[in-house]
Amino acid sequence: MAAQERVAQDSCSLRCGDRNGPCSCHPTCSGLGTCCFDFQNFCLEISPSSGSMMGGKDFVVQHLKWFNSTDGVICRFKESIQTLGHVDSLRQVHCISPLLYESGRIPFNISMDNGRSFPYAGTWLAVHPYKVSETEKSQLVNETRWQYYGTPGTTGNLSLIWNNSALPMQAVTIELWGYEETGKPYSENWTAEWSYLYTLATNIPNSGFFTFTPKSASPNYQRWKVGALRITDSKNYPGEKDVLALWTNDHALAWHLGDDFRADSVAWARAQCLAWEELEDQLPNFLKELPDCPCTLAQARADSGRFFTDYGCDIEHGSICTYHPGAVHCVRSVQASPQYASGQQCCYTAAGTQLLTADSTSGSTPDRGHDWGAPPYRTPPRVPSMSHWLYDVISFYYCCLWAPECSRYMQRRPSSDCRNYRPPHLASIFGDPHFVTFDGTNLTFNGRGEYVLLEAVVTDLRVQARAQPGTLTNGSQARGTGLTAVAVQEGDSDVVEVRLANRSGVLEVLLNQEVLSFAEQSWMDLKGLFLSMVAEDKVSIMLSSGAGLEVSKQGPFLSVDILLPDKFLTHTHGLLGTLNNDPTDDFTLRSGQVLPPNASAQELFQFGADWAVHNTSSLFTYDSWFLIHNFLYQPKHDPTFEPLFPDKTTLSPSQADEAAKLCGNDHFCNFDVAATGNLSVGNATLVAHQLHQQRIRNLQPVVSCGWLAPPSNGHKEGLRYLVGSTVHFHCDSGFSLTGAETSTCQADGTWSTPTPECQLGRSYTVLLSIIFGGLAVVLLIAIIYVLLRRKGNM
């Protein structure tokens, strides 16, 4: 028995993530050389490691060979969903990803004994269907035709293409699956379900191309209006779940709808729109808990903690805005609303002006179901993509694209203006290193160690940074330091660390002490946060509170931007000061003592040292002996390191001239050139400081007066409602303006004049006066004539 226990402790079977015992099964063991001998056999690496949440993707388990062909392989996801695995001719173990109703990291286990035990563990990344590569999906040729099929002028054949090498089989079957959510909305019995409906074609050659003429589906399938096609092996029985397959994008199933739709699509769609309207009016008002949109495009792109690019309208990818023509860029609120899991959308014109539905059907529309879903996912309206399709997209087809009833849709999905929008507060760290606090105070702190950048009890937000000395041009150690790692956690969220890899100097991202790969996906849905690899040298972290971090490489060090919404006011401590719009108390020690703004460089160095991380609260990963010996087992602030203080820097005359040409009056840049003797380091600091200043400008508050209505029987010119903007009013032909011709948005957030009225025009009044006046004259002459005749007769 003792021998068995000892063997178990020496093995990673059922121990993945455990670092206790004679050997480790924790991800850090690879760098430390402390792994159990079978670590890679039981703690699995897979390739590929991600795929669409629609499932059907084959992945192979690395480092694991299987030679017992009699026992079956079973892959179990989230302790409940089982799929059949297989072993290939090279004895490699494979699994098929299942159809899921959630995105994010999905734990799985593998059984090699027909399900008697599941000792092998790994993680699969399930991705929003629209965020996976197009090569991983089947393509609807001319997707718009598919979704308008049966409307006037849209008939004929439809075509489908796919990468046939992704399906290693001779013959395939093409199936239609439908999606629906049933039960009472916002109750426990509200459920989401994908259902196999019927087969379009079976046992056709796997040529990568299929074309057909759609026929109306039988009535028992008509209730499904949203769905997707699946291509799979013809050897599978119809609708067999969780098998190797390729899916199309989810889409409006116009092409399968009944003869009544094809006979009069407008009447059919109008009836559907009216039914949606009736249901919508019975549901809770989700608009009241959505955040207001940023006022300008610059604000929207700078507020990266709360808003992120909408992939359906992206200025970085040509502004192809199918549902919002006239816009060049849209953003979505990163986090779903707390109660109803709804989402905000904000769209902008080329001039940077917000585009509102009150002015145009191209305006931004909020969503009852957030497009990206909401934790814990799986149930309506939190299912990524699909809940959004049912409550916000298919209804747009009913009311706006298939029938002229868009005003009904826009009335229930009105754009948010920005009158209550408050930009976040920005703090930055860059260079050697230099700190600009949330309240705008500047600080240079050249400590060596690990320090608290920010702590906020209101959400238990913690941000920590590691600073290490730089290198002079002659290869010796500089007396200046810079950030080489940043770690963050909020509440019980995942811990994310961004650091410079030791030798290559490239960005490396760790999740809960395990190095992440972004080779397949640049976006990850994680516990309590979203993570985006914006570029190979820039990472964006979006936390559930609305706080955001951007970590990038600038020169030899990291540059960090931290954005905090108003809820953090008066709740922050650390090297980035107390966020309260008062720069005089930013140098507050742990004890509560406040150093004056004019404190000496030596006093400020002690302020920085006071905010060293405590070992018990460190968020960092120590997965090399260098990190263990230099940071884990050493004081978090190195008392032996002698920094270079700003008032002690000197430059030779030639260096001073070069620095002056490069830096001008930027004291951060000048300091870093003096500290390192390297102009490129100074230039990196200069660029980082300029980016900070630009972002501060972009985040400046803007006064909005709100939407201004056009006059009845008239129109207006001007769709900008920010301070200083002027709207011009005009009347339709035959009407004249009563009131001011213009109104200007004032600094107090009110319009200078209300919307005027358009009254029946003066030209009509004059014409009527002439007509009636002429009739009166004729009548008077007739009366006089009659009287004169009578007088003559007498």
From TrEMBL:
Transmembrane segments: 764-788
InterPro entries: AMOP_dom (IPR005533), C8-3_MUC4 (IPR056619), Epithelial_Barrier/Signaling (IPR051495), Ig-like_fold (IPR013783), Somatomedin_B-like_dom_sf (IPR036024), Somatomedin_B_dom (IPR001212), Sushi/SCR/CCP_sf (IPR035976), Sushi_SCR_CCP_dom (IPR000436)
Disulfide bonds: 731-758
Annotated SMB domain residues: 8-47
GO cellular component, one term: membrane
Sequence ranges assigned to domain Sushi in this UniProt record: 703-760
Keywords: Disulfide bond, Membrane, Sushi, Transmembrane, Transmembrane helix
Cellular localisation: Membrane
Record-annotated AMOP domain positions: 265-413
Pfam family for this entry, one: Somatomedin_B
Primary subcellular site in the record, as a coarse category: membrane
UniProt cross-references to PROSITE patterns, sorted A to Z: AMOP, SMB_1, SMB_2, SUSHI, VWFD
Residue ranges of every copy of the VWFD domain listed in the record: 425-619
Name of the protein described by the UniProt record: Sushi domain-containing protein 2
